[in-house]
Amino acid sequence: MQDQIIAVPGNGKKTQAALSADLLSRTLRIEYGIQADLHAGYDLALVSVLVGLAVWCDGDRFWWRTGWDAERKRAIYAWHPAIEPERAARRIAFRYADLHAERPLEGRP
After folding, report:
1. How confident is the model at residue 28 (pLDDT cuts 50, 70, 90)?
2. CB contact set of 77 (below 8 Å; sequence gap of 6+)
3. In angstroms, rounded to a whole number, what is the distance separating the alpha carbons of residues 14 and 40?
4. Is residue 4 part of a domain?
5. How far apart are CA 105 and CA 109, in angstroms?
6. How many distinct structural domains can be found in the chain?
7. Domain presence at residue 8
8. Please, what is the Cα angle at 71 between 68 and 75, to 5 degrees?
9. What is the secondary structure of the chain as a DSSP string?
10. What is each CA distance from 91 to 22, 36, 76, 80, 86, in whole angstroms?
11. Which domain of life is it from (predicted)?
12. pLDDT digits 0-9 by tens, 77-90
């Protein structure tokens, strides 16, 4: 896995979105053993966890896709306040486990 890449504004300071997403990414790795890539810029951050599981952050909240509404033909999203990255990580870890159960990786023991 590549090192995390964090884009910062011209003043060299991370945005609130990048800081919150970094806390989320670290919590996923430390508490749940889930590796994720972090990308940030333009006051948004993206934590790429798994194919089909990308978590966005604007500094106020995290949001990620949880399903599809066939009747309305649109995605269903869950969200969590960015001030609680530990609780958000727990919810995302559950979604990660659901996706693994639905689509096991080939060659995985």
Report:
1. very high
2. 63, 64, 65, 66
3. 9
4. no
5. 9
6. 1
7. no
8. 25
9. -PPP-----TTSPPPHHHHHHHHHHHHHHHHH----EEEEETTEEEEEEETTEEEEE-SSEEEEEEEEETTTTEEEEEEEETT-HHHHHHHHHHHHHHHHHHSPPTT--
10. 16, 15, 15, 9, 9
11. Bacteria
12. 999 999 999 999 99
On whether the CB atoms of residues 51 and 64 are closer than 8 A, the answer is no
Contacts of 105 (CB under 8 A, 6+ apart): none
Bridge pairing between strands 44-50 and 53-57: antiparallel
Identify the pLDDT of residue 15: 86
| Residue 11 within any structural domain of the chain | no
Asked if residue 82 belongs to a domain, the reply is yes
CB 58 within 8 A of CB 44: yes
